[in-house]
Amino acid sequence: MDQSRSAISSSSKDKLYILHEYGEPGHYLGLRRLCEMRGVELAQREFSWLRGLAKGLLFRDRKKIVRAWQNMRFLFGLITGPNKRVLFSAAPFDWRLVFLYPILWRHRLFYHTSWSEWEGERYPKRGVLAAVAKRLWPRMLGRCERVYAVTQRAKESLCAFGGVDPNKVEVVGHAYDETIFFPQDKKRDIDFIYAGRLVPQKGIEEVLELFLGRSERLYVVGEGPLAPLAKEYGEQSPNIVYLPKLSKHELASLFRRSRFVVLNSKKSPRWEELFGMVLIEAMACGAVPVAVDHVGPREVVTDGCGVLFEEGRLQEALEFALRSDEESMRQRAIERSKEFASSAVAQKWKGILG
Questions:
Q1: Burial of 297 by CB count in 10 Å (0-12 exposed, 13-18 middle, 19+ buried)?
Q2: Phi-psi region of 201 (alpha: psi -120 to 50; beta: other; left: phi over 0)
Q3: Angle at the Cα of 274 (from 278 to 42), degrees rounded to 5?
Q4: Architecture of the CATH domain 3-172
């Protein structure tokens, strides 16, 4: 390792920075748990500080302005400041890497991704600078001490694209807080539950339409552009209940009352369900997953712990779930979920603190 990467200041030895586009603390529960156990401070910074500053000024939001200023100072500090340990996370092929790489390369760099299709032309960030960033990405990966992929598919695809040594890529799924999400022996009076963003790509319209007038109870929890639609269906059909966004504790209580959790996401040219946090949280509470066969759910719902279905076959999946050995799937779902508890996932992040 060259001198610039090994000369770490004493202050950076016990501090780790996550550099993300907009900050996603829920994705790093396992890492946070590890840092707490090791006495390492975990700080999150956002590289989209200019957008945050503009929003703060536009809406006169002092908190946004202060956060944008903090993010800007951090980024400029990377240019001349002491060597830091940075976990970088950005979607392919974010054009800002063109400007970030020159200030990141001399630090102890790690990369984290959930993207699963690196080899083809299906990626979320596009444009002239994105094409430049795409050529720069393998160089950035080569500078990383370790790379963390959310799924096995993401690891395989990233290695094929960037020529990354598979031995330095760890598969580390997202984690849930097991002090909040856990099973309980109580009556399950909710047949199906959906929890998450109420947006078209989550397929919530199809879910609502299928449950209209059915005998099974459906709870829909969340906020978004389709919230008025969910509320309208709830007013039309007594078996459909709409609730706005709830706290984690309130949501866990509903999961413990639910027989099945539904995830009906729709693939697009730039997106598919890359993991599905709601699945592991619900499974930990004993709700059996009925999930679309996207790359994320495919690696979470394994070994008979739930039902996977092809897009457009939701109704068949629901009927199959109702006919299946529900209690057997429930126990398997609970056991499978333990692999994603924050205490278990924390152990998979160990290499970043080495």
A1: buried
A2: alpha
A3: 75
A4: 3-Layer(aba) Sandwich (3.40)
CA neighbor of 305 nearest in space, from 318, 320, 319, 286: 286
Q: Is the Cα torsion angle 122, 300, 186, 250 positive or negative in sign?
A: negative
Higher-confidence residue of 121 and 30: namely 30
107, 85 contact by CB (below 8 A): yes
199, two tokens: 């947006």
**CATH 3.40.50.2000, applies to 190-340:** yes
- Cβ(162)–Cβ(191) below 8 Å: no
Indicate where the chain has its CATH 3.40.50.2000 domain(s): 190-340
270: left (phi over 0), alpha (psi -120 to 50) or beta: alpha
Distance CA 114, CA 237 (A): 38
SS3 45: strand
**pTM, entire model:** 0.92
Tens of pLDDT, residue by residue over 296-341, are: 999 999 999 999 999 999 999 999 999 999 999 999 999 999 999 9
Question: Which residue type does 181 have?
Answer: F
